[in-house]
Amino acid sequence: MQYEVRHQDKFRFIEEGQGETLVLLHGLFGALSNFQGLIEYFRVHYKVVVPILPLFELDILHSTVGGLAKFVHKFLEARDYKNVHLLGNSLGGHVALIHVLKQPERIKSLILTGSSGLFENGMGDSYPKRGDYEYIKRKTELTFYDPKTSTKDLVDEVYGIVNNRLKAIKIISLAKSAIRNNLGEELNQIKQPTLLVWGNNDSITPPFVAREFNKLIPNSELYFIDKCGHAPMMEVPDEFNIILHKFLKKLNEPATVV
């Protein structure tokens, strides 16, 4: 499915559907395709928005999770989205966390899946070797429980990024920034209802990370999905969408008086 990429000032994004706003933040090697199953399902119920994060456009000084969080804040302001359900995968989850901690006003709920911010393994024992396609293929496959989820298009995209010297430098800068930026002591400040959806076989942000998020974020609930890796919305979109939709619907139910 092809989506129209809209432009407003320096922002590029897609916006599909009507209703409450569901904003999706992709990860370090992410793209719009990561969210296709999610967009198709939720565009019937919500206004689904995916900003294209400027992973390679920021200057090196601002190629950090904090720099991306500032970008997201300016984007939400420029579009004047309110009561936003903010969802982030991997680095996108980390960006969402920083945004909620610094500018919570527009955010109604937070959804994290495979998020960094506490602990994450990188691409493995060393940074991606430029020019070694099979190495990149193996490392990309580690993102998923089922290696077949890692399509040739996805591997080609990652391979293209790490073989571009400037892009590789920006990726390293963002990855190091994420590792340095541990949010453990701040997470208790989050007031928004928070949904954590994690792959039980996530080797990048393993299940213990999800449990720690659940312990540290006050109003949070955690769901694990079996036979699933670091990107549940890609690998098991149907199951992911059911969990998310149930969470979002519950937010609009009137509170029961006991």
Question: Please, could you describe this protein's structure?
Answer:
The chain is an alpha/beta fold and 258 residues long. Helices cover 38% and strands 17% of the residues. It contains 9 helices and 8 strands. Strands 1-2-4-3-5-6-7-8 form an 8-stranded mixed beta sheet, with helices on both faces. Helix 3 links the parallel strand 5 and strand 6 (107-113). The longest helix has 16 residues, at 165-180. The mean pLDDT is 91.
> What name goes with the CATH superfamily?
Alpha/Beta hydrolase fold, catalytic domain
Cα gyration radius (Å) = 17 Å
Can you give the helix content as a percent range?
25-40%
- SS field, number of helical segments: 9
Overall 3D form: globular
Largest sheet: 8 strands, mixed
Provide a compact summary of the structure.
The protein has 258 residues and is of the alpha/beta class. It contains nine helices and eight strands.
